Amino acid sequence: MGALLGVLRVCHKNDLPLSLGTGGPVYSSVSERERQAKYNRFFWPLAFTGSIGLMGALLKNYFLLEFPDGVRELAIFALAWSIFMPLQSAMWMVPQAVNVLVVDRGSLRKSLQFFGGIVCLMTLPLFVIGFTPLGYDFLGTVYELDEEGLRRVQLYLRWFVSFPLLMTTGQFLQGMMVRAEATGKTTVIEVIRMLGMSLVLWYGVSRGNDPVATLIYAQIFADVLAIVLRGVSLWPLRGKWTAVGKVVPSFREIAAFFLPIAFTTLMFSFGRPIVFGFMTKIDASNLPEGTSMVAMIAGLNLAWSFVPLFVNPLNQIRSVFVNYAREDLKGVVVLLKRVMVIIVSVWLLVAWTGLAGMFFRGLQGAD
Fold first, then answer.
1. Fewest CB within 10 A of the end CB: N or C in the chain?
2. CA-CA distance, 183 to 146, in Å (whole number)?
3. CA distance 266 to 202
4. 227 within 8 A of 173, measured Cβ to Cβ
5. Half-sphere exposure of 234 (CA within 13 A, CB side)
6. Residue 216 has what DSSP assignment?
């Protein structure tokens, strides 16, 4: 909710438009039912897009467990991904910034330059951690693992170096699609992206390829595929970005909007490496009988991959606020209340009926 208020405050302060075109729809002449139908058509495809995207983590979990010594490999991957998580969480805010700031060719060009710099800043720490002895020592400080485990974690991070560019590009294009209210297409593209990732993962497992290479190739293939499809989808919509009477934002203005919301999500994401770091330092004698730390880390990663499926739809409300709250704040709040009731009800159903256990045992291959 703080992020929502921040979006509205920045837009109001800088007189940034909250919808495409020159004035937005005339809501006074549209009935409440029609407005809610419009918001639902915008929001739910976007919510499904986010949840479908998160299923990539579930796919990786499932196929990793299919490899020999899959539990250990899943734990190693979880430790490596948790180091990358703060950077990934910052990328999640790129669509929000694009949705607010990119309104014409000038702001598009300036935003591309800004986020190009952000990509470089995010890639540098990954390069240091993945390729240098200093990075190995850092991992040894965070995680108490044997040498083989640390080398394996560093190997994953070495491959992650390409992810900031690919993921930021994809998120930038998705923000432009949201800006153009093409949320239905974003859902279709995300489904295709997940199918592509599944195909590469299945091929790697069936051929007995190295788990690291299999996961990285699957991620890169899926991201490149999504970038191409989003670019193709945006081409017919290029006329949407017309002048709206606002000067091109400066780098300082873009940073003033993007960095606070990115920093907020980045702080939340630090919880995962901190928890995993403490878990690797627990003495084995203090664990329940028959339980290994590797299995506990793998199990916690399964849970952490599952819960965001219910949280992410609520995060997408931000885009509804950006696009429609200035003209109809009351109607957007009504939508938010209905979405909260639906999401909480589904979560309680899953938690109280044992569906979560069926999911982990059946669809994730966990014992």
1. C
2. 46
3. 32
4. yes
5. 18
6. H
